[in-house]
Amino acid sequence: PVTLSVRGLQKIYSSDTGDVEAVRDLTFDLLQGELVCLVGPSGCGKTTLLRCIAGLLEPTSGTVELDGTKVTAPPKKMAVVFQEYGRSLFAWMTVRQNVELPLKNAGMGKAERKAAVEKALHAVGLDHAAGSYPWQLSGGMQQRVAIARAVAYEPEVLLMDEPFAAVDAQTRADLEDLIRTVWKDLGVTILFVTHDIDESVYLGERVLVLSNSPTIVQEDLTIDLPAE
Ligand code: ADP
Ligand code: ADP
User: Which ligand approaches the C-alpha of residue 52 most closely?
Assistant: First the structure.
């Protein structure tokens, strides 16, 4: 079934100096459980698109629907991981507390929270680091914490905006493999945005290739994943 439906999405930024059309007439569906990569050059409109999907930015025209309901504000069923993981974690909270915070804010009970945090930290291989503070961890580990926090609430859709652009090549390869594992273990639908074609083909079951700004879907490719 279709989880996320984007129809005729357009976003124009207006200012005194003129209009910038960042996204033009973008249409695609995400099926439940898919891992789809969106790839396109820097400045082509990827972040704009992701923010519109996440309900953080209002499109100029077109619609985004999650399970048939129009997205007008950030839905609980969606979680986002941005590139700037460092800034998104609270330095004065332990890893466990960081992951737990959104669950607490959502009013989840204590026992349920504890189980959800443990499951999320386990999914990203950070069981041992629950009591550490973010600043005690490497960049790659911090990004794992951000991923754990995003999946702890068991979102239906996980949106990722160039999440590994700021880490070194080896860490990045590890994190890419981690995303595959998380995807398989948790059965979450993932939309992964990147400017790196290699990364998109490595990770995605399906790759949507975006054109230059304003962004449109140029190609929709199915990737044959290696048998396991
Ligand atoms: P940077 O992000 O370093 O400024 P670019 O955004 O120009 O550089 O390109 C980054 C990567 O995106 C390159 O690996 C390039 O092959 C890829 N790329 C460039 N144009 C496209 C396109 N139209 N669609 C998808 N990927 C592209
Ligand atoms: P990408 O994520 O692919 O690098 P962006 O969505 O960040 O692309 O940007 C797409 C285009 O929209 C670019 O030309 C950028 O300069 C412009 N843009 C992004 N954010 C704003 C904004 N807040 N106001 C005006 N123009 C913007």
Answer: 2
Give the closest residue (by CA) to ligand 2 atom 17.
Answer: 22
Residue reference for tokens 């754990």: 148
Residue 101 to residues 29, 148, 153, Cα–Cα distance (Å): 31, 12, 10
Q: What is the pTM of this model?
A: 0.84
- What is this model's ipTM? 0.65
pLDDT in tens, 144-189: 999 999 999 899 999 999 998 888 899 999 999 999 999 998 899 9
Asked whether 147 and 124 are in contact (CB, 8 A), the reply is yes
Quote the CA–CA distance of 36 and 159 in Å, as a whole number: 10
Task: Please answer whether residues 33 and 205 qualify as being in contact, where contact means their C-beta atoms are separated by less than 8 angstroms.
Answer: no
In 107-180, which ranges are E strands? Answer: 157-161
Contact 15, 44 (CB under 8 A): no
Pocket test for ligand 1, best of 83, 197, 210 (most atoms within 8 A of CB): 197
- Which atom of ligand 1 lies closest to the CA of 198? 14
Beta strands in the chain (DSSP E): 2-15, 18-31, 35-39, 61-66, 69-70, 78-81, 157-161, 189-194, 206-210, 217-222
Tokens standing for residue 215: 């962004």
Strand partners, 81: 160
